[in-house]
Write a structure and sequence with these properties.
Length: 249
């Protein structure tokens, strides 16, 4: 099968978005060494996705470090390769759910801590956590994702409608229809998990909002996110321009 041609300016802009996500995430402490990975499909080219290459630290990621990969895991444009777990996770999820344009897998400290508790994420605890009410799945740990079976297991959870998957004893997977939406969810998920950890650390009983309030608040968040997500992402890029000039060269 021949590789479809993506307009150069479209591909360049998408690569810049992923590089920005990686750098922004490092600024917030969401990375772990040179591991973890983000991907993005370009509308109209569902059989291909962008993925950060394995090797560079997230603080040094540039658009040229972003690979173009097909759903069989082959690098069709770019130098280097992706981590094996990255290729398996992202190709399977993109195949299972084409609307999941941007997929972010991290070992964020607070979200990973919550993923390692028996009670898990409490979506009725805070206003931020209510933004995820009804959109979260939890999966038991199945080892490193180095084969098709484990990748398919993760993809099944996403295909069933979850936007966040807590991987027990591991980390999280977050999806969005755009880099901006994926970043908004990632940022506010970690904030929600941070507050949950702090609240639980007091040893006092948690105050949970009524179910109907959580549902209502989630709808409010969903209605507002289309406006907030691009504004927040643009602000993050401005901070990169200010603090890391030349990051996208």
């Amino acid at each position: 099968m021949s590789t479809p041609t993506i307009a150069a300016e479209t591909l360049a802009a998408a690569r810049e978005d992923i590089a920005a996500l990686l750098r922004i995430s490092e600024v917030h402490g969401y990375n772990e060494g040179i591991d973890n990975h983000y991907s993005l499909t370009i509308e109209g080219y569902d059989e291909l996705f962008l993925l950060n290459r394995y090797g560079p630290h997230w603080s040094e990621m540039r658009p040229s470090d972003i690979l173009l990969v097909d759903l069989d895991g082959n690098v069709v444009d770019g130098q280097g390769g992706g981590q094996i777990t990255a290729v398996q996770i992202h190709r399977q999820i993109h195949r299972a759910r084409p609307d999941a344009r941007c997929i972010m897998h991290t070992h964020m400290p607070y979200a990973s801590a919550i993923a390692s508790t028996k009670g898990g994420f409490e979506s009725r605890l805070t206003q931020n956590s209510m933004s995820f009410h009804g959109t979260v799945a939890t999966l038991a740990y199945g080892g490193q994702v180095q084969g098709d079976d484990e990748g398919l297991r993760l993809a099944t959870a996403v295909a069933e409608g979850a936007n966040v998957i807590f991987l027990q004893n591991h980390g999280v997977i977050i999806i969005g229809k755009s880099p901006a939406e994926a970043w908004l969810r990632t940022y506010f998920l970690e904030r929600a998990c941070e507050v949950q950890v702090l609240a639980q650390s007091t040893g006092d009983e948690l105050v949970l909002a009524p179910l109907e309030v959580a549902v209502h608040t989630n709808r409010q968040w969903m209605d507002a996110s289309d406006e907030e997500a691009p504004l927040l992402f643009a602000a993050m890029k401005r901070l990169l321009d200010r603090d890391q000039p030349g990051w996208n060269s």
